[in-house]
Amino acid sequence: MGTVTTTEPPSLTTALAAHIGQAIAQAGGWIGFDRFMALALYTPGLGYYANDSTKFGLLPGSGSDFVTAPELSPLFGQTLAVQVGEALARTGTHELWEFGAGSGALALQLLDALGERVQRYTIVDLSGSLRVRQQALLSPHAHKVRWVDALPDRFAGVVVGNEVLDAMPVKLLARHGGQAGGVWHERGVVLQGDAFAWADRPTDLRPPVEVEGPHDYLTEIHPQGEGFIRTLADRLERGAAFLLDYGFGEAEYYHPQRHMGTAMCHQGHLADSDPLVAVGRKDITAHVNFTAMALAAQDAGLQVLGYTTQAHFLINCGLAQRMVELPLLERATAAKLVMEHEMGELFKVLALGAGEPWEPVGFSQGDRSHRL
């Protein structure tokens, strides 16, 4: 399984590993993967999103681990602003809420593009180190921007979350044996000497659909993501939410051939599948089951206003016209936002509404809501 510690930098990984090891001991020697993922990512001062490492950037040489769409091209936020502006007008609201604002690049793009249509921009972010970077970048809009740790009991406005759901802890379910007689287990983490190791326990938890086939199968379920959607539904009196992330509908998510699951790590612009090493030094994510998110929203009283690929969404909002005006190199970079083998097809956009239903421009063509 590899050892708990790494050579770079040992102080952080050693401290976080010790902290997680203590949590495992206090839990009786085993914790579910969702608990491990939460500790690895969000332990104050030590977790990946709570420490000072560089996370967002175009090139590995910058010390970054991955790039998100707003860092890739400012056209992402400028084009998303078309949809957000329409949503503000249709819902009669003047406040934007962003979850997990990352580097702050998307907030800056939206604020620059929307101008006086946004009276207040509220960032909900648990990361103190990222907040400092966001404050520096957003200083031109300091009079509009505020940071909070949680949603208020009731609010109105437009919510944006880019690559937020994929960073929410997931439970791992493993089936040993085929569909006929296979037994489902919850995969968790234990300590073996000074190393973290996998350990499976029988569970009553199941994926939302039967997984066919005679083979072993590993997958995820998303109770925390679904809980986030329910909280959003409970608090949002009037407005809309646009959630952009990589993932699939349920039928594709739990396809028999997807037997290794989707949980992945990202470090230095390289992906790997072992979250038990270099803890705190790399991102841990899982693809989003958008069917589960849409059902959670509907069950909690929100409307599903649209679901489509990022490519369809951005093109519907006018990306192609904006790209024509760019120099060739910038145009080629922006094209990655919609190219099928880059972000265009894997990334999806889910739109939710509170109040009277309406048809957002971003889903005018290519809406896949019926396929959820």
Give the number of DSSP strands: 16
**What are the segments in which pLDDT stays under 50 over at least 5 consecutive residues?**
1-8
- Give me the Rg, rounded: 21 Å
Mean pLDDT rating: 93
Query: How would a crystallographer describe the biggest sheet?
Result: 8 strands, mixed
The secondary-structure element order is HEHHHEHEHEEEEEEHEHEEEEHEHHHHE
How many helices? 13
Shape: globular
Proportion of residues in β-strands: 25-35%
Class inferred from helices and paired strands: alpha/beta
Helicity level, as a percent range?
Answer: 25-40%
Give the terminus-to-terminus CA distance.
37 Å
Would you kindly provide a written description of the structure presented here, covering whatever features stand out?
By secondary structure, the protein is an alpha/beta fold. Helix content is 33%, strand content 25%. It has 13 helices and 16 strands. It has helices at 10-26, 33-42, 69-72, 75-91, 105-114, 128-137, 223-235, 250-253, 290-299, 310-316, 319-324, 328-335, 340-344, and strands spanning 31-32, 95-99, 120-124, 145-148, 155-162, 171-176, 183-192, 195-202, 217-221, 236-248, 264-267, 270-272, 283-285, 288-289, 303-309, 347-354. The protein starts with 9 loop residues before the first helix and ends in an 18-residue tail after the last strand. The relative contact order is 0.15.
Topology:
Elements: H1 10-26, E1 31-32, H2 33-42, H3 69-72, H4 75-91, E2 95-99, H5 105-114, E3 120-124, H6 128-137, E4 145-148, E5 155-162, E6 171-176, E7 183-192, E8 195-202, E9 217-221, H7 223-235, E10 236-248, H8 250-253, E11 264-267, E12 270-272, E13 283-285, E14 288-289, H9 290-299, E15 303-309, H10 310-316, H11 319-324, H12 328-335, H13 340-344, E16 347-354
Parallel strand pairs: 2-3, 2-5, 3-4, 5-10, 10-14
Antiparallel strand pairs: 1-7, 6-7, 6-9, 7-8, 10-16, 11-12, 11-13, 15-16
